[in-house]
Design a protein that fits this description.
By secondary structure, the chain is mainly alpha-helical. The strands form two sheets. The chain has a five-stranded mixed sheet with strand order 4-3-5-7-6. α15 packs across α16. The protein contains 32 helices and seven strands.
Length: 694
């Protein structure tokens, strides 16, 4: 068997003729190649070695051909596209999640709850039972607290350490999405090249130097993985929660990465079958990506509870049932081994926390925070059934405009068509099931919050990415291509309404940005915020950016340069993040959170031994974090008066009282009855003698 000319010269120098391959044995030859040239990082070697041993070297010729092919492909891949892709991912991560991550204070009311629970976990040395303000906190499992505690040990107790786990989860998800799209497009391109009848086209030098998922004659930033990474990371929902120190992005990072790992394992099994090797009956464990799937599911359970396994099981199960290969999936994934892995990772903490807290934990976590949230309204978080349509429209903007077209483009109603497709070509269908199951699951749930549909954003990004990738590359379905005019740089006419809506939608966003200060005056914690944000000029900057983007898209449509619409949307969004959104965070912090941090410092300095710190009329957990001490909360004036009268503290005849100025009046306090220590923003901090309430 002559060695192909495209094989790297290193391989040519050590491969003998076909006869000697058979005589010496493929296994010994493989070991010499691996030890001599140290290609241990090429996973094809390990996989092929295992397969050859399973078949007792009955298919040596097929195996050697596969070795040569993998060696050649591994050595000839260019360095530049990989380096550019790495720089692209770093730029996305920096703009979306790392830039100014710790420059503003913790935002009430949710973020400080997690931050302080993690701090108290480090102080107490108890990694089993979370506490906040001296009381147990059973809202969420401990993984987010553990990660924050590690960050505290490394970076100190600060805002950056609180938010870094969420940012890293978002970055990891973006990178795995990039890799999944790369592998999917690589397999698709390989299948097309194998089916080409034109031998000259198959030997084109461009096909050997293009980055993964890239098409000829297109800039690298039009490649599928580049588009996908940008859409997964750069959207309002992912940016907001990727920069917030709560467990939502941790759940999304684990659960969505698990789903991506499932699809990679799903396609890996197909590659094994096509290489004429069967490993289903040879190992007790599933392939490496299925194993990764199970590990990530276990971490998702430790991040937010049963939803970490219920939703992925629903998605994977419905996907397999639709394609009719559920039984095959069951055998491939080896769920018994998977369940044991999940139990080994996730179960110990649940056992320990139940042993430590008993029925109290079961009723609080499983009853109230899981079952009751699905069947009833918790914390007044109710919304109409169509709530998540608006959440996705705004939370995935501006890419959400193309989501209906992307969903329709999957042709999900053609089941026979999808059953004939190779697994690597089923990514859009899998993303659709991912999106649809999550959307339906949380629409049925009675308690509704915008963050609940955050896990479907990566699926939406994949759908829109594949839409744009196919359109830019001109990969139109045959039944549609007939109806299209063959013009360069043109897109299907059916998308014209979507393009127009893109322009209109951006103009609506621009108008809302200009006039939103009229709707921002209902927060008593920052009564001067509308004037501050208007005087900053950020609303004008943000609105102008969206107007310019809309005009640019309209001009591109006029010039029939529709493929650049994606770039215009991207540039507009990044410009808005840099020049509009990020500076607005600072304005919000100055008006809403900075006064509380300043008063917390004053309270720490002025507090007498044994003196109690009481909040009246509002609940701001950030005070607990920044004072690093207990704070008593009373929601109403009547409850506050009763509490102060009934509480007996012989060590301190006074209390520290924080509230709005009108709360002091409602408490019946005269200015001469208390000592005003400081006044910041909408708040007052005073020392009040207990006898003033007698």
């Amino acid at each position: 068997m002559p060695v192909p000319q495209r094989v790297n010269f290193l391989v040519v120098g050590i491969l003998p003729a076909h006869e000697s391959l058979v005589e010496n044995g493929a296994t010994s030859l493989f070991n010499r190649i691996r030890s001599r040239w140290e290609f241990r990082e090429c996973e094809s070697f390990g996989r092929l070695s295992m397969r050859a041993k399973i078949l007792n070297l009955k298919s040596q010729e097929v195996w050697v051909k596969e070795v040569i092919k993998n060696l050649s492909e591994f050595r000839k891949r260019p360095i530049a596209p990989k380096l550019l892709s790495l720089l692209w991912l770093c730029a996305i991560a920096w703009v979306g999640f790392l830039w100014n991550l710790g420059n503003i204070g913790l935002v009430d009311e949710t973020e400080p709850l997690f931050a302080e629970a993690a701090r108290q976990m480090t102080v107490r040395g108890d990694i089993i039972t979370p506490y906040f303000n001296g009381e147990t906190r059973f809202d969420k499992p401990p993984l987010i607290y553990w990660l924050m505690a590690v960050a505290y040990r490394t970076l100190g107790v600060n805002e950056l350490a609180v938010r870094l786990p969420s940012a890293l989860c978002a970055i990891g998800l973006t990178c795995l999405g990039f890799y999944t799209l790369s592998k999917s497009k690589e397999e698709g391109r390989r299948k097309k090249e194998e089916g080409r009848q034109n031998e000259e086209e198959a030997k084109s030098p461009l096909s050997d130097t293009l980055p993964l998922g890239h098409s000829p004659n297109l800039p690298i930033f039009f490649s599928t993985p580049w588009i996908g990474a940008a859409l997964i990371a750069l959207n309002p929902q992912t940016i907001a929660w990727g920069r917030t120190g709560v467990s939502d992005m941790l759940l999304v990072g684990c659960m969505c990465s698990a789903l991506l790992a499932f699809f990679l394992g799903y396609t890996l099994e197909e590659q094994r079958e096509k290489a004429e090797f069967s490993t289903v009956s040879a190992s007790r464990f599933p392939n490496k990506w299925y194993l990764t799937f199970y590990v990530l599911i276990a971490l998702a359970i430790l991040a937010k509870g049963p939803v970490g396994i219920v939703v992925p099981a629903l998605i994977v199960g419905s996907f397999g049932l639709y394609l009719g290969n559920f039984r095959q999936l069951w055998r491939e994934m080896r769920p018994v081994s998977g369940i044991l892995i999940i139990l080994a990772i996730a179960l110990p903490w649940y056992i320990l926390v139940i042993v430590a807290n008993g029925q109290t934990y079961i009723d609080s976590f499983f009853g109230y925070h899981n079952f009751q949230r699905f069947t009833g309204v918790v914390n007044k978080h109710s919304a109409p059934w169509y709530f998540y349509f608006f959440v996705v429209l705004v939370g995935f903007a501006p890419w959400s405009i193309y989501l209906p077209v992307a969903i329709a483009r999957t042709r999900f109603w053609q089941r026979s068509y999808w059953r004939r497709q190779p697994r690597s070509a089923q990514l859009s269908l899998f993303a659709l099931f991912w999106f649809g199951c999550l959307f339906g699951f949380f629409t049925i749930a009675v308690t509704k919050l915008p963050s609940y549909v955050l896990p479907l954003i990566p699926a939406a990004a994949i759908l829109v990415t594949l839409l744009w990738s196919d359109i830019i590359a001109g990969n139109e379905p045959e039944n549609r291509r007939i109806k299209l005019e063959k013009k360069p740089n043109s897109l299907p006419r059916g998308l014209l309404a979507t393009y127009i809506f893109n322009v209109v939608f951006l103009l609506i966003i621009a108008g809302a940005t200009f006039y939103c200060y009229n709707w921002l005056g209902d927060d008593p914690a920052m009564p001067n915020f509308p004037q501050a944000i208007q005087q900053s000029g950020l609303l004008i900057v943000g609105g102008t950016i969206w107007i310019i983007t809309a005009v640019a898209i309209a001009l591109l449509l006029w010039q029939r340069q529709q493929r650049w619409i994606l770039v215009a949307n991207f540039i507009g969004l990044v410009a808005f993040i840099i020049f509009g959104l990020t500076p607005a965070y600072k304005v919000v912090d100055i008006n809403r959170q900075l006064p509380l941090r300043q008063l917390a410092q004053v309270a720490v300095q002025q507090k007498l031994p044994g003196e109690e710190f009481i909040m009246v009329g509002f609940w701001k957990p950030s005070l607990v974090f920044y004072t690093q001490g207990p704070v008593t909360y009373n929601g109403s004036v009547t409850k506050a008066i009763d509490y102060i009268k009934e509480s007996k503290n012989p060590t301190s005849p006074s209390i520290l009282l924080l509230g709005y100025p009108d709360k002091f009046v409602q408490l019946g306090l005269q200015p001469n009855q208390y000592q005003l220590l400081d006044s910041r923003g909408a708040y007052q901090l005073a020392r009040v003698p207990r006898q003033a309430f007698q």
